[in-house]
Amino acid sequence: MVNKRLDKSELHWADSDYLCLFCYDPLYYNVKSKKEICANPNCVMYQKQPRIFPYDPNSPGVRKFKDDYQQAAVKCYQFTREFLFNRLYEIRVKACADFFTQNNLVLNQLLGINYLIVSVARNVSWGSSTDVQLCDQIINECLCRYNDLKFVEEVELRIFLIDEYSEPYTMKYYDEIVEIRKVLGIVNKNRNTPEDVNSFYFLEKQARVGNPSSPFDFETIFKNHFGLVITTNHLFKLGYFISKVHQYPAKTVDLAVLFSLWPICKPTQLCFIDQNGLKEIYDGVVQKNNLTGNFPEFLDNYASGNNFAPILIHDGTRFHFDYFTLFIFMFYVFSLNRTIEGTQTLSGFKTLNDQRKIAAKRFELLIREKFRNEGYIIYPQDDSDLIITVGNKTHEYDCIAVDHSAKLVVLAEAKYEDIAPSSTAGETIVEQAILDGHDGSLIHAKDQHERRGFFTRNCEKFPCGIKQFWDYKITSVVITKHTPMINKHLTTHFMSYEKFKSFDFRQ
């Protein structure tokens, strides 16, 4: 079911640092001069000079980037398939281990290797070279060309723009998107990167459900690492063509087979299995769990590289797998799974959302605690929900903070949400991040505006001891996990949690 989009004209009542306040399209800035522009040719504020070039898939520049990648990838065919795939696997193993341990991370190695495998896997004619130095040189060239492809895609998605003098422009909110990704742990890391880059890690730890009862207690393991799952969902959807090679069908049997392989690995161990051994495991999982499955289809989806980035690397003789790679990909595949089949009782999609709700509740409590520490009287005063019904109208309030001496009431709504990976493009960010009828900022603002009105009309029904609302200043705010695209809509203010931590509502 597609969420209803709200009318863009309602942004007339909004204030934003990131939108053109005439047409409500994203603002851009010149990377060199930092000058802000509106790039909507139908807007009165449109920058006419210098001209912004529209994306053209057939332009010489775009074709050159794509051709350069293909020419680099073709050089891989001079090696034997077994040698090349072994080397690609070794590089990816290190990238996955670094990603999991958070000690070091170079994003283009993990994503670029996956894309390269899919780019060359269908080739049927291979050479005889096993030159390691030459192979690494060509792989590095492919990774550089991959970065160029990513830039072309970001221009296509209007994250970046190019003018007639080849000057680059960046969507202004993209700087915040980069910060959001840093919080998620999606950042190129080295020994100088702060360890606490994920500032919400402590909340994710609070949402854990205890130690797993055994290495096979997948539900507990998954719940305890749901923050990692959210991160991989963003990582593997950073752009269209990366998302496409990670759109696994995620059937129940797929996850069960991958999980059957994982507990037998040790973190430092590289494992191998031939096709007969893998089929024996597959058939055993199907029979034991009363699942339906197709082994050749499983191999095509998870080991061939024909359509999706292979989780099990097949070098022509054996299937390679390891602890960290299976852990990361297995959790990601499970998060895509929406079905329950056979004796399996879990849906990864539902389980992930349940853990998000637990973290969201912790986020509410964190906001209440901040007000309490500042001397406000907080409602609800415990961990319960505050639900008020008058007539046929019912509203729930995350936090009402009252300072009777200052005659101040703050109605605070907590939104512990991450921006969807698909909404980071210039073409879609307003529709998905603001106008979405379920999770967009505008619907949150409208709902909070309605809660404020309900409070002022019925303040005597609330447990706050307020008889006449006009004696008090009433501030309504939505507190978000990250910097929001709009600052205010009607009576509702928006602020990030980072800003909220030091904000004084009494001023």
Which ranges are low-confidence, i.e. pLDDT below 50, for 5 or more consecutive residues? Answer: 190-203
Broad structural category: alpha+beta
The largest sheet is: 7 strands, mixed
Helix content: 40-55%
N-end to C-end Cα span? 44 Å
Number of beta strands: 17
**Overall geometry:** globular
Strand order in the largest sheet: 1-16-17-15-14-13-10
Number of domains: 4
Count of alpha and pi helical runs = 17
Q: How large is the radius of gyration? A: 26 Å
Strand content: 5-15%
Mean pLDDT: 88
Describe the structure.
- There is one protein chain.
- With 507 residues, the protein is an alpha+beta fold.
- It contains 17 helices and 17 strands.
- 42% of the residues lie in helices and 14% in strands.
- A seven-stranded mixed sheet has the order 1-16-17-15-14-13-10, with helices on both faces. A five-stranded antiparallel sheet has the order 3-2-6-5-4.
- Helix 1 (60-74) runs antiparallel to helix 4 (132-156) and helix 10 (252-261) packs across helix 11 (275-288).
- The two termini are 44 Å apart.
List keywords for this structure.
alpha+beta, 17 helices, 4 domains, seven-stranded mixed beta sheet, five-stranded antiparallel beta sheet, 507 residues, 17 strands
